[in-house]
Design a protein that fits this description.
Length: about 220
């Protein structure tokens, strides 16, 4: 399972570079706004931090303007994946950009049928939002199970990119379901590392080691 990091904060991304825990990055207009930076600059900088796909989202709602924005964004760096919303215009834009060889991430997916449409439009990634479904009383992971099954039925090459991940249990569930990618804030990746028994065990080992008076080097 690949891990994408869901942030436009380059300091956080630089801290994860070289750890093997960052296979790509996702951003959205809210994250770009939070960075307080010009979008083209921050996307270019993120693309210099990772070789993996970096999702940059269009903000137009009509096909023609989305296409222009998508072509502009993909020209920023070779590893830009253009993110489009799951609307009719977004799917149309996905088809054109995908046919041109651009990676497209179709975002704001909340149903399995929407995911089916994105695969048919040639998306490289579909982003079902599990946390936002949980927020309104659904089980977001049911959607992931459905999409993984449907894509498997037809050998679609579109990767299931589990989005709106909020905590480590989401990551575990997505991995058990065989999702290709999970995108998560840096805090969730850090939470995955931590275990109280790891801390306790290490503390005991180091205390015993100190009693030997040895040093390895
Ligand atoms: C990913 O591409 C999305 O931008 C992100 O996962 C949304 O997460 P949120 O629902 O926590 O805002």
């Amino acid at each position: 399972m690949k891990f994408f990091v869901d942030t436009a904060d380059v300091t956080e991304l630089r801290a994860l570079a070289g750890t093997g825990l960052m296979d790509g990055v996702t951003t959205n207009p809210s994250l770009i706004a939070k960075s307080g930076r010009k979008m083209s600059e921050v996307i270019a900088e993120i693309c210099s931090i990772t070789d993996g796909p970096v999702s940059a989202e269009v903000t137009a709602t009509d096909h023609e303007t989305m296409l222009k924005e998508g072509r502009y964004l993909r020209a920023i760096a070779e590893n830009v994946a253009v993110k489009v919303p799951l609307t009719e215009a977004g799917l149309r834009t996905c088809k054109v950009l995908s046919d041109e060889g651009t990676l497209v991430n179709v975002t704001l997916c909340f149903s399995a049928n929407q995911a089916l449409l994105a695969a048919k439009a040639g998306a490289a990634f579909i982003s079902p939002f599990v946390g936002r479904l949980d927020d309104i009383g659904y089980d977001g992971m049911d959607l992931i199970a459905d999409v993984v099954q449907i894509y498997g039925n037809y050998d679609f090459r579109t990767e299931v990119l589990v989005a709106s991940i909020r905590h480590p249990v989401h990551v575990l569930q997505a991995a058990k379901l065989g999702a290709h990618v999970g995108t998560m804030p840096p805090g969730v990746i850090k939470a995955l590392i931590k275990h109280p028994l790891t801390d306790k065990g290490l503390e005991a080992f180091l205390a015993d080691w100190a009693k030997t008076g040895q040093s390895i080097l």
